Amino acid sequence: MKPFDYVRPGERSSAHEAARDGGRYVAGGTNLIDLMKLEVMTPDTLVDISRLDLDGIETVDGGLRIGATLTNSDLAADPRVRRDYPVLARALLAGASGQLRNKATTGGNLLQRTRCPYFYDTDTNCNKRTPGSGCAAIGGETRNHAVLGASEHCIALHPSDMAVALRALDATVEVEGPDGAPREIALPDLYRLPGATPHIETSLAPGDLITAVRLPAPSGDRQVYRKVRDRASYAFALLSVGAVLRMENGRIAQAALAFGGLAPQPWRDREVEALLTAETPSDALFEKAGEVLLAKADPPPGAAFKLPLTKRVLKAVLTEATQ
Amino acid sequence: MKLSFAVNGRKQSLDLDPRVTLLDALRDHVGLSGSKKGCDHGQCGACTVLVNGRRINACLSLAVMHEGDEVTTVEGLARDGPSALQAAFVEHDGMQCGYCTPGQICSATAMLEEVAAGWPSHVSADLTSKVELTQDELRERMSGNLCRCSCYPGINAAIGQVATEVPAEEETAD
Fold first, then answer.
1. pLDDT per residue over A116-167, tens digit each?
2. Phi, psi (deg, nearest 5) at residue B124
3. Do residue A79 and residue B121 have CB atoms under 8 angstroms apart?
């Protein structure tokens, strides 16, 4: 690990200051410290925000306000989350291990880095790690790379389960700027597609601090999270689907669908949701949804299996959610 | 950098480089080698310790982030003899080489508390009802601890036995 300075500010204003001057926030550290050991990330200063009292969870306007440093364990165990947002509890519980969930936080989970093996291997080229160096994944081992939203510069996936559920639940992110000014950004606006600058993953500026995630009241009572992976537990998704649906008189009144394991960010396609809305559930409808979702898919050779997998899993999830 | 925390109930004051992980601090600076370094990347669970009662991977945490915390390692679980889990691992032969055992036992100790607190898991059919620690639940909840000797039958039997035992407090209360 490269040497670094460690600071633990007692208030947010000093945290902003330290981060604006090149420091990197740390809370749970489960991803960042690993990346520092491998020298994939080499911050000069670590700014410990784990004791800034950002770990609350409260009911606000019929929804929930989830503190940025609340652990994934506490969030998954919260009675309100288990009752009203089961898709979120399920997504959290499908991720990592008991030990990791006890440290991983809401904000850190959103900002975790890809698990693309070439990003982790400093002996290979990676545009995300070293801008302009090239992408060793393209033409390499691509079993778990993006089939949607990738670019000729980067085909890495976003690894989070939690973020997939949050995307389906229309979560927004509360951010405090370095001057202390708060703003709220919709989750899709937090993430950027790789394009020609895969090293720029979010719309956050230096010193910006995620303080909370906001969830509106759930838009549907039928919530499903299904994850497919190479082993039964403790593995990243090959594919995951988070679904939040509402039925009325046997028809789909509203559908929110988010996908993990497909793209550089939790993926959502309004065209697919529009196709399902006001329709009566049927196998043909669900198959059509899969085709529309993947119409623009461009999988690298190793990830071609994800196309039929996605269609089948989507059909199963929609069948379960509409029964 | 100065650090003060409690390890197995004893206060420790250390002066550490910020790069030192909690695992290395425990092993190399406090002198407790029970917690093991397996993968050093949070993938095997051999380094599992309890921090303020919760299980974490000590290899993925910086020691300096634990100012004021209460850390429990496998050495601190025994009170007047081995803990119930420690004894059950011996009884059921829950090990071969033994390298993962301290992590398994620390992890299981906290896992049983999580079950008692009603935390659901990935395999819980119902997120809101009481948890029953079936073999499926046990395996899912212990998936962060790998055993390369594959002693899972013995490990699961040991944990399963302790999970079904009546806690000592309840026995004396009757």
1. 999 999 999 999 999 999 999 999 999 999 999 999 999 999 999 999 999 9
2. -70, 125
3. no
Q: Which residues of B touch A161 (CB under 8 A)?
A: none
Question: In Å, what is the CA distance from A263 to each residue of A238, A239, A270, A274, B163?
Answer: 11, 10, 15, 21, 41
The span from the CA of B66 to the CA of B18, in Å, is 11
Residue A76 has which token pair? 């998954």
Residue B174 is assigned to a structural domain of this protein = no
Mean pLDDT of B129-148: 96
B17 touches chain A (CB under 8 A): yes
**Whether B94 contacts chain A with CB within 8 A:** no
Q: Write the CB contacts of A312 (distance below 8 Å, at least 6 apart in sequence).
A: none
For the record, the structure tokens of A77 come out as: 């165990």
- The answer to whether position B137 is within a domain reads yes
pLDDT digits 0-9 by tens, A254-289: 999 999 999 999 999 999 999 999 999 999 999 999
Q: Which of A173, A184, A132 is nearest to A153 (CA)?
A: A132
Residues of A in contact with B107 (CB under 8 A): 98-99
Digit-coded pLDDT (tens) for A94-103 = 999 999 999 9
Q: Residue A191's closest CA among A212, A167, A214, A209?
A: A167
Could you tell me the CA-to-CA distances from A1 to A114, B44, B168 in Å, in that order? 20, 20, 46
pLDDT digits (tens, 9 = 90+) for B79-135: 899 999 999 999 999 999 999 999 999 999 999 999 999 999 999 999 999 999 999
Mean pLDDT of A219-241: 96
Go through chain A and tell me how many residues it has.
323
Give the closest residue to A96 by CA, choosing from B112, B60, B162, B129.
B60
Q: Domain A5-50, what fold?
A: 3.30.43
A245 to A106, A191, A251, A279: CA distances (angstroms) = 24, 24, 10, 12
Q: Architecture of A222-322 per CATH?
A: 2-Layer Sandwich (3.30)
Pairing of strands A57-60, A23-26: unpaired
